[in-house]
Amino acid sequence: MSSDFEGYEQDFAVLTAEITNKIARVPRLPPDEKKQVVANVEKQLEEAKELLEQMDLEVREIPPQSRGMYSNRMRSYKQEMGKLETDFKRSRIAYSDEVRNELLGDDGNSSENQRAHLLDNTERLERSSRRLEAGYQIAVETEQIGQEMLENLSHDREKIQRARERLRETDANLGKSSRVLTGMLRRIIQNRVLIVILAIVLVITILTAITFSVRRH
């Protein structure tokens, strides 16, 4: 499981390094090449998001006791992804303004106002994105707590079942012991009855013998 995560991790590191390099180059590129690089960065950002989703799925499969370290790394990668998207938005806004100025011939003041307005909207989107990410993180942590509670309940149920089985075995052993004791008592009573009968027969025999002996004399 961790080997798959580390493989995605390496791919993410290589991909984000390429994206960072291309974003830094955008302002210095000719218009035609700039358009191609912007499209390429958009595609690579989507690939990076898919890698993050795969890494997130891998983290969810890791046992809770080992998940903390990977969760911290995921938070770091998500922050890095957010920063890349922010840098790309600013670069793309600058690129859009440049293209619009070339097409429409806007003056510098209008371009600056539009850029400030777009940056303000971008910051609002970033704040909304951070709030959504925080909500997502809370949901993930809640899910982890729920999984741990279910695992604990499962362990408790197994303990209860084992205790019930031991009680059943004890009841069965007690039943066998009770039957054995009952049989022993029955045999003791039978032996005592036989001894009494034999004693009576012996006394009668002795008395009979004494009676015959007295009559003869």
From TrEMBL:
It is found in: Endomembrane system; Golgi apparatus membrane. It is a single-pass type IV membrane protein; Single-pass membrane protein. Residues 117-184 form the T-SNARE coiled-coil homology domain. The chain crosses the membrane at residues 193-214. One of its GO terms (molecular function) is SNARE binding. Keywords: Coiled coil, Golgi apparatus, Membrane, Protein transport, Transmembrane, Transmembrane helix, Transport. SUPFAM superfamilies: SNARE fusion complex, t-snare proteins. Pfam families: V-SNARE, V-SNARE_C. Its main location: membrane. Residues 34-61 form a coiled coil. One of its GO terms (biological process) is intracellular protein transport. InterPro entries: GOSR2/Membrin/Bos1 (IPR027027), SNARE (IPR010989), T_SNARE_dom (IPR000727), v-SNARE_N_sf (IPR038407), Vesicle_trsprt_v-SNARE_N (IPR007705). GO terms for cellular component: cytosol; endoplasmic reticulum membrane; ER to Golgi transport vesicle membrane; Golgi membrane; late endosome membrane; SNARE complex. Belongs to the VTI1 family. Interacts with distinct SNARE complexes that contain either STX5 or STX6. Interacts with NAPA and, to a lesser extent, with NAPG. Identified in a complex containing STX6, STX12, VAMP4 and VTI1A. This is Vesicle transport through interaction with t-SNAREs homolog 1A. It comes from Delphinapterus leucas (Beluga whale). The gene is VTI1A.
